[in-house]
Amino acid sequence: MTTTWLDRLSRSPRRRVIGASVGFTALAVLAGSAIVAARPDAPAKVAEQGAVTLLPGSPSVQERPGLAALSTASDSHGRLITVSAAAPRTVARLNCARFHAAAGTGLCLRLDSNLTTYQLTVLDAHLGVRTEIPLVGVPNRARVSPSGHLVAWTVFVTGDSYNGGRFSTRVGILDTRTDTLVATLEDWAVTVADRPYHAKDLNFWGVTFALDDRHFYATMSTAGHRYLVRGDLATRRLNTVRDGVECPSLSPDGTRIAFKAARDGDPRHGWRLSVLDLASGHVTPLAEQHSVDDQAVWLDSRTVAYALRRGRDHADIWQTPADGTGSPRVLVEDAQSPATLTP
User: Fold this and answer.
1) pLDDT tens column, 217-243
2) How far apart (Å, rounded) are the C-alpha atoms in residues 257 and 274?
3) Which residue positions in the chain have pLDDT lower than 70?
4) What is the pLDDT of residues 145-159, one digit of tens each?
């Protein structure tokens, strides 16, 4: 269902219950080389209000933009952090379960004030609240379009893992310019192998946006398959592109997709981080050998970043080349939900 949600709220002018789900971390580069293993060596000191922004640093200071992420350090767990050449690790007051940002727009999926339910919060570049919407479900993925105009989220409605078993997810998309809300993709027209497809077991997750603010990619599961689908916000249609693609992340030039591929075709065996060339269909497994259960982000056209769990409560952000060469290395310790800060 597509609607302007502000026009349909019953009592509150800013809140509406919808289904949804979620997403990871941060870093920066000086003179072309990454700030490796930015780490919380000292106890976290929360920055003054306004000191943390979602705007990139000056190009004269750093060749690549910095990153934003969520801390998993014990003294700042869940707080937004930024990492840049000028400030290796700055901690904000904002606390999120999942986070992403682009072009000065932030998306924070966080506990509501009653601490039993979640809400979606759209932020401006200085972390001011633009919109708040209650969520039904547990946040799992979050993504902002390159323009900053669109935000998308995924929630687990039931279950809490993609590695087999029964679960139900729901995706939502909000146009921050018009407040037009796509509350679910389950009522969109779907084609599989160029034929209309109807099923009751459809699940969607992991949206990634194209540059045109119209098209996007996501994962659709049905009948034991996990398809990469391409969506069109104008026509409300979803077309399958390829089987076996989860949590897609579109490259800055729109030609490749980083994704997690189930080992041996079985999510219970974990996932191999890989890159799909959309034109040729060629898939390149990346150098990371650990199972990656994350929606990767592109640091630039040659490098992807992702989080790896370290125990129950901690994670680190790693990077690896997108062409399958090289070796993975830690970018930011004790962090997850990375987002490249772009103008």
Assistant:
1) 999 999 999 999 999 999 999 999 999
2) 8
3) 1-45, 47-50, 57-65, 114, 159-166
4) 999 999 999 999 875
* Other beta carbons within 10 Å of 297: 29
- Positive or negative, the Cα torsion across 188, 175, 71, 323? positive
Alpha-carbon distance 5 to 101, whole Å?
22
- Write down the CATH superfamily of domain 2-340: TolB, C-terminal domain (2.120.10.30)
Planar angle of CA 135, 16, 125, nearest 5 degrees: 75
Amino acid at 210: A
3-state secondary structure of 178: coil
Cα distances from 279 to residues 225, 232, 241, 248, 255, in angstroms, run 22, 19, 11, 16, 7
Those residues whose C-beta lies under 8 Å from the C-beta of residue 113, and which sit 6 or more positions away, are: none
Q: What angle do CA 95, 23, 115 make, to 5 degrees?
A: 40
DSSP for 269-288?
Answer: G-EEEEEEETTT--EEE-S-
Asked if 256 contacts 278 with a C-beta cutoff of 8 angstroms, the reply is yes
Which token pair is 318? 């790693």
Q: What are phi and psi of 223, to 5 degrees?
A: 50, 40
Q: Please, which residues have CB within 8 angstroms of residue 282's CB and are 6 or more apart in sequence? A: 276
Select from 302, 295, 298, 243 the least CA-distant residue to 273: 295
Beta strand 180-182 with 138-144 is unpaired
Q: What is the spatial distance between Cα 31 and Cα 36, in angstroms, rounded to a whole number?
A: 13
Domain boundaries, the chain: 2-340
| Contact between residue 151 and residue 5 where contact means Cβ atoms under 8 Å apart | no
